[in-house]
Target: Tumor necrosis factor alpha-induced protein 2
Amino acid sequence: MVLDLWRIFVPCNCVLSKGAGGTEENSGGTRRRLPKLKISAKIWNNRKVKNQYEEHELDGEQQEVQQHEEQLNEVTRKLILREDELFTQDSHSEEEEDQLQKDYESLSIQIWMAVHNTFTPSSLNDKHLEVLRNAVDSIQQQEMQDQQWRDCSKDKVPAWRPQRWLSTHNKLLQTMVESRLTEATEDDSDEAKQLSSAVKKQVSQMGKRLKEDLLMVVRTVKDCYPMKMDILNVYGGLYHQTFSDQLAKLTSSGLEVDDCGYVLFWVNHYYPDEILKHKELDGQIKTACLGSLLLQDNLKRLEEQYLSHREDKVKQWLNTVLKKEEESWLSGKTPELIDSYFFSPLAIDVIQVVNSSLTEFTCAIKDQSKAQRLTVHLENFLSSYRRSVEDLVKANPSNLHSVIKAQLVCEQQLRDYITGQTGGLSEEQRGRCLDSLTALRDCGYQCFTCPLHGKIKVYLGPLWTSPWVDGSLAVVDPLLNFLNQQLDDLSDLKPACKQVLVCKLHQNVVVQYVKKTMKTRMKSRQQQVAGSQRMVEDAKKISSFFEEEGCGEASWLSEMLCSLAEILRLQDPASIHLEVVNLARKFPDFSGAHVSALLSLKFGLSALDVRSIRASVEENRPLDVSANQSPLFFSRVKLKWIDKKINQMWIKS
Model:
């Protein structure tokens, strides 16, 4: 190994042209025979080396004495002093010059051996670190001496100048780094054996060696070098370039898909995020100067290969999930009961497919916006899923209700996942996904609420009749008893889903109540006043019932009914004006047509009063509708019959 170092680096010193003992031409053009080089025995580490030189062997005790006689930097300083003294004389003997040159050559090998041993197992001890520190100091002294001779006449410059030891040092580091990464790929550790392919083993072993060596540099080696040499970034650049070259070779002839993903994981994630940003390296390595481990064309090719494969897999897996679910529906089987509630694994399977794909994508692809190439298949899946549920409802199989109960659980799980998904989905994709889920959810709940619409309408039929107005006929109580029986049949629906259904049912009841009220032809002021009192009582009963069933919307619906009742009770135009404006401010979908229909129920309001109230409503609507906390309600009160009522009102006026 010593001879290999000598053969590689001595020519870089511009001292010998053919090796020790050869012929050299100095700057003055005179050719002379150089004496044979005698290398200090301590360099050979008790090994016999046969070459064109004479054999030299010292026992271990003598080597130890020689090794500690003088520090390398002190030897360097003395040799430079000899050089200065020798070449400032008017004349000097050739023997003195040759001996000085031999001493430099012997010193250089000791210097390069000290550097070469940087990563040996014994290099962590204080003794080696001190040797390395002295070697680095020697290199700096030689660089300074090169500078001193730079402007001198060539015939006065020593034959060995410039030495260029710093350049030689850097070339040696490059050779060391290349050798260490090559040796790393030959490691046959248990950890390497666990990897499934040769490519993965090579990448992992080189990356692990790179990380270990850079951490060793920052922990110990760095302190042996002056700050101006920036040795950590020197090593960082060499390891980066060597690792990059090795990856280019591995990927040049194409990779299997699995290996492709692993290489991208190292290139785009583990190397830049886990190694270069390691807590001991972060901020110290100039990552902006390093760039990517792979050239852009090569990187794009691998990313496209990886993404195309992942797209196909995600699409295939999601289609398989839906097909399996549809087969279960058509088999007539009742879904599984878990904790006494109907359940389907569809949502969990879908979330697992998407989440695992996005997690892997995040570590493999640098441009995170490309995740939409995967999430678009989630969007397409949800659209297909919605259509499948709608087709199932139309088919109305015997297991429909139990299947829908399970699908409502899936819808909620998917909604929670998509709402909480911070990456991968664009806002447009998220919106389209939620729209599909909303349509699916509405379709599912309508299976339970639509059959009740007609019966709710029948139960509310006696509203505003004389028996209801005078309190002799209870209308809401029988309706709530009926709904209570229907809700008992939903005990096997997950509570969170049942709560949503109950809230929808609550809104349906109130919508039907308001429709019946606004369609009624009032006969007298006394009927309005008495009826408004019944409305308040009914609002409280309805609110209390649905609150007990777990509906959190009960309060605002009750307040809305009470506001309508108050408008019907009031007779003073100014008071009516104020109450209608307040109602419109709370409910942004309380339109002008709704205002006109409500006012048409009142007695004693002129056309001028109606126009004034409508104008005031429009003027006082909040500009920022989103600031209004009340949900949409009146938009569900359709306006076909309201238009007729408005026309009748204008004819009367």
Summary: The CA atoms of residues 273 and 579 lie 62 Å apart. Residues 6-69 have pLDDT under 50 and may be disordered. The first strand starts at residue 23 and ends at 25. The radius of gyration is 44 Å.
